[in-house]
Design a protein that fits this description.
Elements (H helix, E strand, L loop, with lengths): L1 E10 L2 E8 L3 E6 L5 H15 L11 H7 L3 H4 L10 E9 L2 E13 L2 E13 L2 E2 L8 H5 L19 H8 L2 E3 L3 H5 L1 H4 L13 H7 L2 H18 L3 E8 L6 E7 L7 E4 L5 H14 L5 E4 L7 H16 L8 E4 L16 E7 L2 E4 L4 H8 L4 H5 L5 H9 L3
Parallel strand pairs: 3-13, 3-14, 8-12, 12-13
Antiparallel strand pairs: 1-2, 1-4, 4-5, 5-6, 6-7, 9-10, 10-11, 14-15
The protein binds adenosine-5'-triphosphate and magnesium ion.
């Protein structure tokens, strides 16, 4: 499955985004604070709503998802004025089928701190599933029902269960190597769903040894190309306390090299290992924040290809990846077209999408990469130009 379109209304700094097309690999670019992470957060929000209810703090559901974002007042676009509804709509391609899921919600008001659904609907191949159309007659007789979505309710989402499972499996990664290296000192304090990769070693430990070894071998093959002195990446459990570790042999002037654990790996190596592992870990949408961080420019330049190769050689070659980036080298691959770029720019009335202008289109035709043609406009000087062009 993959998300092919996203519309947002009053979501954080997006007052209105209509049907933004998404590809198998999409790159969200734009100046600092323009809303790149907020864009990804709309998809993480769907994940949080759809996640199984279960025990706190991993509990899913609409109310939890809003609470986790410090309430509706923080979420609703500051430019929303009188319009109270926040709305997210996604179109999902599922083989030959096309699903569309819409969720709208607002504060209940009347002194209540609850949020209520203003609309929820699902369609498959253009046909609305009538049993999933909210508000429905039952909602009319019992308004409390409007505090939970059908998406989060296994008794109500049978007709679109594949979609609910797909949303619940959306993964977000913004790996912070230091958190992983200092896991012992930090104790067990970890954020929900581990967005910063602290639990990465535990996840590796929980993977069956066959799958784990196969994945580590594939990562090693990718690393051979970019960190050639790094060999024999493998997993080990500490014999004294059982804690999980990665180790690798770092070749140097001594013939046998030196064995190192993850705390001695470079930040970039660790980040790359985390990224490659995450790519192989599932088949749902993967959201990556600035994968270029800590990496050498030559590696950054090859990241799109590396992502492609790792996925192509694995179980889920068509896995969708949406990432944010500030990096021109990352976007230097000439096979990347404008269709895979989502360029965000701020206006006085919220953030909007800025497609390539005429001058940029000419640059692209003349052989410039999307990074060279489209990124300069998101820097301070370029922003001025966009503003002058009325974008
Ligand atoms: N409800 C809201 N209404 C309007 N703006 C909001 C709302 N919530 C957050 N913002 C704004 O969104 C901005 C942060 O957006 P975000 O973190 O997505 O930026 P970014 O493009 O990822 O930046 P960076 O490149 O620095 O990571 C902040 O300036 C914040 O004020
Ligand atoms: Mg960001």
């Amino acid at each position: 499955m993959k998300i092919v379109k996203l519309s947002l209304k009053n979501w954080r700094n997006f007052k209105q985004l209509e049907e933004v097309p998404l590809q198998e690999r999409s790159y969200v670019i734009g100046a600092n604070a323009v809303g790149k992470s907020n864009f990804l957060d709309a998809l993480r929000f769907l994940r949080d709503v759809a996640a199984p209810a279960g025990t706190k703090p991993e509990a899913g559901g609409l109310q939890e998802a809003i609470k986790r974002r410090e309430g509706l007042a923080k979420l609703r676009c500051l430019n929303a004025q009188k319009e109270t509804e926040v709305k997210i709509e996604v179109t999902v391609q599922d083989g030959g089928d096309v699903w569309c899921y819409t969720l709208g919600f607002k504060g209940e008001g009347k002194g209540n701190n609850r949020n209520v659904i203003t609309r929820e609907s699902v369609s498959k191949n253009g046909n609305r599933l009538l049993e999933c159309q909210r508000p429905d007659a039952a909602d009319g007789t019992d308004p409390d029902r409007l505090t939970t979505t059908y998406l989060e309710n296994p008794n109500a989402n049978k007709a679109f269960r594949p979609l609910a499972h797909y949303f619940a499996a959306i993964t977000y990664l913004h790996l912070v190597p230091q958190l992983l290296k200092h896991a012992d000192e930090l104790g067990g304090n970890r954020l929900q769903r581990d967005p910063f990769g602290q639990g990465f070693l535990l996840r590796i430990a929980e993977t069956s040894s066959r799958t784990r070894d196969a994945r580590l071998r594939r990562i090693q093959r990718a690393l051979d190309q970019v960190v050639p002195q790094f060999k024999q990446l493998s997993f080990e459990q500490d014999p004294t306390n059982g804690s999980p570790h990665l180790k690798a042999n770092f070749s140097h002037w001594r013939e046998s090299g030196a064995w190192q654990r993850e705390s001695q790996f470079s930040d970039g190596t660790l980040r790359l290992i985390g990224l490659l592992w995450s790519l192989m870990e599932g088949d749902s949408l993967l959201l990556l924040e600035e994968p270029e961080l800590s990496l050498n420019l030559e590696i950054v330049r090859r990241l799109p290809q590396l992502i492609h190769l790792v996925l192509k050689g694995g179980k889920y070659p068509d896995r969708q990846v949406i990432l944010t980036t500030h990096s021109e080298p990352l976007l230097s691959d000439l096979s990347l077209g404008t269709e895979s770029i989502i360029r965000l720019v701020s206006t006085g009335n919220g953030t909007v999408i800025a497609p390539a202008n005429e001058k940029e289109k000419i640059m692209l035709k003349s052989g410039f990469s999307v990074g060279q043609a489209l990124l300069p406009a998101v820097g301070p000087a370029g922003l001025e130009q966009l503003a002058l062009a009325g974008v």
